[in-house]
Amino acid sequence: MNNLDSSLQAHNKLEKEATNLALLKDRVDKYHDLSTQMSSILTIFEKRLGNLEQTILPVYQETEQLQKRQQNLEATLNCLESVLSHYDISQEVCQLIHQGPLEGNISVFLEALAKLRAAMDYFLHNNSQSVELENVTSLFNTGCEGLNQHYSMLLKKHSAPLKPVELLDLIYIEDDSSSDEYTSFRQLSQTTREELFTISHWLEQNMREYTHIYATERGDVVLRSLQLLKDHQKSNSWGHEALRPRHSGRQAEPKKNTSARLQQIFERKANKLYLRATQTIEQSTGFSIKKASSHSDHLTSEDLLDGDQELDKYLVMLLGLQRLLNWERAIMHDIIPQSKHNEVFARLAYNAIELVVKDAEAITQRIMRCISRKEWTSALGIFSALKRVILLQPDIERTYDPAQREQLTKVLNKLQHTGAKALEHFLDVVKGESSTNIVGQSNVPKDATVHELTSNTIWFIEHLYEHFDVIGSILAQDVLYSTQLDTILMKKALPGEERNKALLAIYIKKALAELNLSIMNKCEQYNDQATKHLFRLNNIHYILKSLQRSNLIDLVTLAEPDCEHSYLEMIRELKASYQKTWSKMLQGIYSLDELPKPVAGKVKDKDRSVLKERFSNFNKDFEEACKIQRGISIPDVILREGIKRDNVEHILPKYNRFFEMYAAVQFSKNPDKYVKYRPHEINAMLSKLFDDSA
């Protein structure tokens, strides 16, 4: 049974597989038929496509040739039109060119010039001998001249010099060319600038000259602005209106004179320099530094507020020039191509800088005349101006080109030269006074007080200290001073500030030495020895006290360590020499051993004449000395009272002994004629010395 079932299953499976095989054969036959049909279709399509290609390709090639002919024909026509346009352009634009460009519509004129330029290039390369080349060249040049004239007209029409008050406001604005406050002074509108920019670049591209037009017109604006400022400075309102802000949004400030405004401006500059220096040091070293004395500290001295007004005006001119040129540089960036900036700016600024340089020469010449008349405030004004010009150097470096900086260096050099001449002339004056003793003519004070030369010299050197930095830089250029400084320092390095102080100390030492010699020579004009000594004592004491009061003694010690001791020793010696002038008067009463000895209040007849002579001589010498010395002035109270005390201590004890021994002696029938003064009367008379009203 099992075998039967297995056989039946195998038979069924065999039948099923046979059915599947028959089905597969049938499908293979169908696929073969389809492939044959598809191959036949593709063969037919290929034949038809080949026939189509043989028919269409000649048509396509013929069409391509026709298109090329059409393109050549169009190119020929365009070229012909272009050539014809070159022949016709002269007539087309002739009227426009002769009329010139119109403001605000420059593009039309530039298009006409571009067409003329194209015609020039065509005739130049294709028919250089043609009349048409001459015509278009002439018309093109006429157009360029008209464009230059229009360029110049635009600059003149929209440019005007700044009014003095506007320029003063511009000066008052802090150094920031990007400040919004500069915009209030702009004269050229944005439209005008764009038109000038377009013209400048067209002229630059076509290699036409235009820079001298711009430089001349804008340079004239700068020059006339400075001239108007100079004229304004000559007016009576200058000192009150100068440097007063008008257009800024700041709160109104109290009125200040020119010097005060300048001081404020230069203090800001000095503080900026100090801040930059400290920031650099702190960033590089990590150390913070405290502010020491600098330019700005010395600029606050009261004498600058009442300084040389002409120098103040000149410094305003310098500031005005710098502000104007910053202003012009900003305008130039909007109009002139970058490649021409240096050339244009150099031309633009030249005349204005020359004006400032010439003004510096005129001012320094005037100051030299003042110095020759011994007006030393002018010399101090030079040092103040020099200090401020030095503070302007960063602005000069930032604003001006190398050639212009070299041009402006003349101002600094002129001021330095004048300062050096002032220092030299002052020494010559002090030295000259020491040898100016005209016979029969006295140039010393009758009361032997402090001489004018002494007070002037001390006043001058006291004020020199306020400018030690610039004076030190001037003296450093003198080989004699630098050599002496090296000798004093023994090759030790010192900071710049200390070196400048040391150089000034050497100068003051020279001035004091010449002054001492001059005082010594001048005292010889007095006939009385006591007056000679008191004159020198007054002056030497005044010098020492002035040096101590102003702390200049510490400065002079850098060059002469024994300076204070030397003056104290000189004063001591002069006091001693003055006391010796009483010796002749005291000689007859001092040595009692040489005088006759009274017995019972009487002396011998032959000795009476000796006592009469001694009393008479003392009275005569004492009265004469008191008469002279009452007219002598000793301004210093301490010195005056000290000399009176010394006189009393030196004279009264000697006279008292002489008086006690001989006043009661009967050596004359008229004793009051000889014994005229009691000791208390001598004391009273000595206390009235140096007092002409006594």
From TrEMBL:
This protein's UniProt keywords: Exocytosis, Protein transport, Transport
Please name the InterPro entries in this protein's record: Cullin_repeat-like_dom_sf (IPR016159), Exo70 (IPR004140), Exo70_C (IPR046364)
In this protein, which residues make up the domain named Exocyst complex subunit Exo70 C-terminal?
316-687
**Gene Ontology CC entries for this record:** exocyst
Where do the record's region annotations for Disordered lie? 237-259
- Does this UniProt record's set of keywords contain Protein transport? yes
Q: Which residues form the signal peptide?
A: none
Could you tell me the Gene Ontology terms of the biological process aspect for this record? exocytosis; protein transport
Picking any one GO molecular function of the record gives: phosphatidylinositol-4,5-bisphosphate binding
Q: Which domain of life is it from?
A: Eukaryota
Instruction: Write down the PANTHER family for this protein, in alphabetical order.
Output: EXOCYST COMPLEX COMPONENT 7, EXOCYST COMPLEX PROTEIN EXO70
Described by its record, this protein's role is as follows: Component of the exocyst complex involved in the docking of exocytic vesicles with fusion sites on the plasma membrane.
Family assignment from sequence similarity: Belongs to the EXO70 family.
**Name the UniProt record assigns to this protein:** Exocyst complex component 7
Species name: Drosophila pseudoobscura pseudoobscura
